[in-house]
Amino acid sequence: MFTRKFFWRLSLGLFFALIAVSGSLIYTQPTWVLGEIQDLRLRLAGVESYQVLIDGHRIHYYVRGPVDGEPVVLVHGLGGRSEDFTNLAPHLERAGYRVYTPDLLGFGQSEEPHNATYSIEDQSQLVVDFFDAVGLKRVDLAGWSMGGWIVQKVAVDHPERVNRLILMDSAGLRMPPEWDTRLFTPTTPAELDKLDAMLTPHPPALPKFVAKDILRISANYAWVTKRALASMMTAKDVMDDELPSLKMPVLILWGDLDRITPVREGWAMHWLIPHSRMVVASGCGHSAPESCTDQFGPELIRFLRSSHPHTTDATMIGE
Could you give the CA distance from residue 205 to residue 11 in angstroms, rounded to a whole number? Predict the structure, then answer.
């Protein structure tokens, strides 16, 4: 006969077993645990998660904000994912925009086919196909780093689909990197530390078990990053000669301490693009769209709401 005491002991045993299993998962797969927590937080905040088939490949995306809001699409960078905009997207949502954050082919929760090129050209076509798949005729389009390069090509090749363009610490010009690009696929804790320092000024130290798990994941997906990098390094899709053709308003947001795509690249884009506005955030690195949203967010909203966005000025913020 099962007594109340028996059930109390069983419940206590299950509780401690759950703690033990949770502790083990946190130690052995911390990135998975953190990812699940982040996904839960997004869902509790009303963010919707979907998958759509594009050219036979499964593409994941998040969408948030009012259904009747003007659409804004945010495109992540190399090795990134849609969750990279978790801090920036709420600024847009609160301002009444409908925000779409897709995972590019090969990244995040999207499919990673082995026969894909992962080139700028192919990813830009994927973005346009994404518009069609989710019923977006014309959008405000933003991209970060490699994502900035991709949205430049979308705007050049399909200007009828883009109202306004936002480039954040963007790649895309014929300016070879002055740092070791192999750091994007780190294989040692020391290389991971160097990458973190390139991305963010004064990054916090990573616990060893977290660094180990990040390196494990990096090893599994390094081939996608390497293939994308190899395509970019050919300079086949550089935009130097194409940017002057842009007619839509363009906002260029940059961190002044960016070591991946230095701020001089932002100024070069500013001079190449008619009607562009350059805003430089003080004390921010390449991860500014994630870590400096208190500066980027208001500037982005101001630009999208402006009835006269065709400006050629430049601003330094956060000083």
Answer: 38
